[in-house]
């Protein structure tokens, strides 16, 4: 069954004379570093019986400026995950392109996605300033953006607490790491306040 499903795309391309290419897109710093662009299935003897090649695109390794000249407006929200030599110039150009979208709902979705994918608060502030000038902030899904930012802050606080715990008490178990990662913001703050004074790791997590 697996062979038939994977063989379907080449057969479809051949029958309809389509140019097809498989692409894997990685978002996030360092994602896909070791992906060679080859998917391989081994048979019972351990030898390859099926191989599938695909193009690997690592957004974090690409220049955002190139996207401005070649990509449709729907893809411009991804610039925040790419390298920007001049963020102010690039983001101003992106907002200008999105501003030209006639459909207000679609424009709002694009601007919301752009803000959600920006990695730095300074960039977020820059784009919000541009949107305020044109009264476009009202088109954004603000509850969604707040949720994304809160989750980002909580993740950063969890990572900081894990570093402090490791420096104070040595290597951490998978259970401790999982517990810290799953904690809410208030609990993380409570534990962080105990790190320096707690004599043992268990005391940090005492109720």
Note down, in words, how this protein is organized.
The chain has 207 residues and is mostly helical. The chain is 54% helix and 9% strand. It has helices at residues 2-16, 64-70, 87-99, 104-117, 121-133, 142-169, 174-182, 185-192, 201-204; strands at 23-26, 38-42, 48-53, 55-58. A two-stranded parallel sheet has the order 1-4. The model is unreliable at 1-6 (pLDDT under 50).
- Strand portion, in percent? 5-15%
Alpha carbon gap, first and last residue = 53 Å
Radius of gyration: 23 Å
Write down how many β-strands occur, each being a DSSP E stretch of 2 or more residues. 4
Question: How are the SSEs placed, and which strands pair?
Answer:
Elements: H1 2-16, E1 23-26, E2 38-42, E3 48-53, E4 55-58, H2 64-70, H3 87-99, H4 104-117, H5 121-133, H6 142-169, H7 174-182, H8 185-192, H9 201-204
Helix pairs in contact: 3-5, 6-8
Describe the structure in brief.
With 207 residues, the chain is mainly alpha-helical. The protein has helices at 2-16, 64-70, 87-99, 104-117, 121-133, 142-169, 174-182, 185-192, 201-204, and strands at 23-26, 38-42, 48-53, 55-58. The protein is built from nine helices and four strands, in the order αββββαααααααα.
Task: Looking at this protein, list some descriptive labels.
207 residues, mainly alpha, 3 domains, two-stranded parallel sheet, two-stranded antiparallel sheet, 9 helices, 4 strands, 9% strand, flat, disordered N terminus
């Amino acid at each position: 069954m697996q062979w038939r499903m994977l063989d379907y795309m080449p057969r479809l391309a051949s029958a309809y004379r389509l140019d097809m290419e498989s692409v894997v897109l990685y978002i996030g710093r360092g994602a896909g570093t070791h992906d060679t662009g080859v998917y391989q299935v081994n048979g019972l003897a351990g030898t390859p019986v099926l191989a599938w090649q695909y193009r690997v695109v690592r957004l974090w390794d690409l220049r955002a400026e190139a996207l401005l000249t070649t990509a449709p407006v729907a893809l411009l929200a991804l610039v925040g995950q790419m390298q920007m030599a001049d963020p102010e110039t690039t983001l101003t150009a992106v907002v200008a392109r999105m501003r030209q979208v006639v459909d207000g709902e679609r424009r709002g979705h694009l601007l919301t996605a752009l803000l959600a994918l920006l990695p730095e608060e300074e960039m977020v502030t820059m784009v919000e300033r541009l949107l305020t000038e044109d009264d476009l902030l009202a088109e954004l899904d603000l509850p969604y953006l707040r949720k994304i930012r809160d989750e980002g802050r909580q993740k950063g606080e969890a990572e900081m607490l894990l570093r402090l715990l490791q420096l104070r008490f040595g290597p951490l178990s998978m259970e401790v790491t999982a517990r810290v990662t799953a904690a809410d913001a208030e609990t993380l703050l409570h534990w962080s306040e105990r790190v320096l004074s707690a004599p043992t790791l268990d005391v940090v997590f005492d109720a």
